[in-house]
Write a structure and sequence with these properties.
The complex is a heterodimer of chains A (112) and B (132). Chain A has 112 residues and is mainly alpha-helical. Chain A has 2 domains: 5-37, no CATH class; 44-102, Orthogonal Bundle (Arc Repressor Mutant, subunit A). Chain A has helices spanning 28-37, 44-60, 66-77, 84-90, 95-102, and strands spanning 5-7, 10-12. In chain A, a hairpin with a 2-residue loop joins β1 and β2. The longest helix of chain A is centred in the middle third of the chain and has 17 residues, at 44-60. Chain A starts with a strand and ends in a 10-residue tail after the last helix. By secondary structure, chain B is of the alpha/beta class. Chain B has a single domain, classed as DsrEFH-like (Hypothetical Protein Ychn, Chain: A, 3-Layer(aba) Sandwich). Chain B has helices spanning 2-11, 31-44, 94-99, 116-124, and strands spanning 16-22, 49-53, 89-93, 111-114, 126-131. In chain B, β1 (16-22), α2 (31-44) and β2 (49-53) form a beta-alpha-beta unit. The longest helix of chain B has 14 residues, at 31-44. Chain B is globular and about 40 Å long. The chains are: A mainly alpha (112), B alpha/beta (132).
């Protein structure tokens, strides 16, 4: 079931769930290709979260689990966007899990 | 009776679930990283976690370190995200600092320096203790 991720004529190494093995290879266009593989459309609202999660990772060296993500987003965007309800609407399979994938980050070890 | 109520309500918020003791220097073994992972998992499930640093564990709090220079993940950077995990009780043993001639230049805020006696008392307020 593994999908080979090809971007600009190169194979981008991923784990079996499609997460990049090297987050430094990430760029916006690559995220679009990844989302396309999953039949998943990225809107501006999605990008806001993806960029935020990526920034979180680069700052703290860890992918935030959902609770930490909502708490950190509250400080940045205010309460209305910082609910798990809002985030699950955007990323039905789990915000921390899905947003980190399109942000090119490792799958969060703490899975929720 | 009022006194009694006050006493019990005063004692309960201090009663925390889990204390994690860090007693090893950061990048010589995986102990520190393992302790951090456990702390974040418990915190993600809204369990109150306190962190204790003693012995060589105090080196984990020292500023200006970068594990990536050793080809390791610099997990100390994650300490700055504790506020998002509601990890607020962070204690360091003063005597351990003194023995190593270390100052209090920690790379995170909110660290409480405690004497050996206070350190022991703080530890006692926890139901479970894990040592790394």
């Amino acid at each position: 079931m593994a999908i080979v991720l090809i971007f600009q004529d190169k194979i981008i190494p991923t784990d079996k769930h499609g997460y990049l093995l090297d987050h430094l290879l990430w760029q916006r266009e690559l995220a679009l290709v990844m989302a396309n593989h999953d039949d998943f459309e990225l809107t501006d609202a999605h990008w806001e979260v993806i960029n935020f999660v990526r920034e979180f990772y680069l700052t703290y060296n860890t992918s935030p689990a959902i609770r930490a993500l909502t708490k950190a987003m509250k400080a940045e965007f205010g309460a209305e966007k910082a609910s798990s309800r809002y985030l699950y609407k955007l990323f039905p399979e789990g915000p921390a899990k899905q947003a980190t994938k399109y942000a090119g980050l490792p799958k969060p070890a703490r899975c929720i | 009776m009022t006194q009694k109520e006050q006493k019990s309500s005063g004692a309960s918020p201090q009663e925390s679930v889990l204390a994690i003791i860090n007693s090893k220097a950061p990048f010589s073994s995986s102990h520190g990283k393992d302790a951090l992972d456990v702390a974040l998992i418990f915190a993600s499930f809204e369990q109150k976690v306190s962190l204790f640093f003693q012995g060589d564990g105090v080196y984990q709090l020292m500023d200006k370190q970068d594990g990536s220079l050793l080809g390791m993940k610099d997990y100390l950077k994650t300490f700055s995200a504790f506020e998002f995990y509601d990890i607020e009780d962070i204690y360091v043993c003063q005597q351990s600092l003194v023995n190593r001639q270390l100052g209090e230049d920690f790379h995170i805020d909110n660290v409480q320096v405690l004497s050996s006696i206070e350190f022991g008392l703080a530890l006692n307020r926890h139901q479970h203790v894990l040592r790394f």
